[in-house]
Write a structure and sequence with these properties.
389 residues, alpha/beta, Rossmann fold, 2 domains, seven-stranded antiparallel sheet, Methyltranfer_dom
Length: 389
Amino acid sequence: MNKQSLNKLSLFLTGIEQRLIDNWEFFKSITVVYKSGTKEFPAKILQDDAKLKMSFNGNTETLESNWLSLRIVKIAQNYDSLVITYEERGSTIIIEADDKNVKMKTRDVKEQKEAIQAHNEVPQISNRDYYIKVGQADELLKEIGILGSNGKIKNDMIRKYNQIDHFVELIDDMLRESFKEHESLTILDCGCGKSYLTFVLNYYIKEVLKKPCYFIGLDYSNTVIEASRRIAENLGYRNMEFKVTDIRNYQASEKIHMVISLHACNTATDEAIALAVNNNVKAMVMVPCCQQEILKQYSYPPFEQIIKHGILKARMADVITDGIRALILEALGYKVSVVEYISPIETPKNLMLRAIKTQPSDSRALAEYKKLKEILGINPTLEKLIYLK
């Protein structure tokens, strides 16, 4: 290749070097196909810890990230043309160079396949525009066990697929609007379990919203944490870490932007909320599970003839528990919404609490909380965990 093309190629590759450094956690590989006449000579470049490993012509060498341009261009001097394919999660960059021209184009992840056909052909999938699309998200959906080898949602995972997609739908505006000024997001999942939602959000934020992100999953079960680590490794999701720990014992060492928690039992949801509040986290999304603490505490004489029935007292306790959580968060300056996450036919534990920090503390809401606390005779764990004044 001539000197003019090599200089232009070097300029393009300098940009690739910087992108590689910036997106190191999302980098997959670089393939270079050198051409001489009709013959092709492929080279492959992969990650090797903090460096790159390049295999070419039967030899393997280790490169620093900032040596990439120099090495590729030096080899290109001996060939007529080349095609470079740079791949990272969510996008691909292709550079084509010869003596006449050097051009670069970007290609996003493949468009949705025809895996979802007409509604009458795949009747198990509702007729809606999914956020996590079959076709685009096949690798993810297969790894978490939702998609079968035939490219269709497994019959016994239809409900799970709809649940995780609806979760993304319910927080999409929060991700887009509340964090549009943030270059990167760090999200903490409390009581992550097998981390299905964490993997789905990782995919959606990075590959659909095109925003860098980092995820931390917490759970006290070593078994589920190891399972999550294996899935992350299989997917190549290096922007994740999983810790075996109790929520109360976790100390954040970095800025957390959002805390999520799905079906953390009893006061574990309060622990997740408190972790968010005490670390000045801007947003949180909670889907509570069983509510036992307030059930054992509250009484309300005007309702005695109603709550004498155990099932009604328990349901009232659920409402009081989530209502008190929302009121405490409002007192702390959060804008709170409580919505139905999934149909109550599927589970009675179907409420989602969304909260975004928008203002200083609200003394009016605090006074309302203290009044209710006295009337009901309750002493919520959440208040003690956040040291509410």
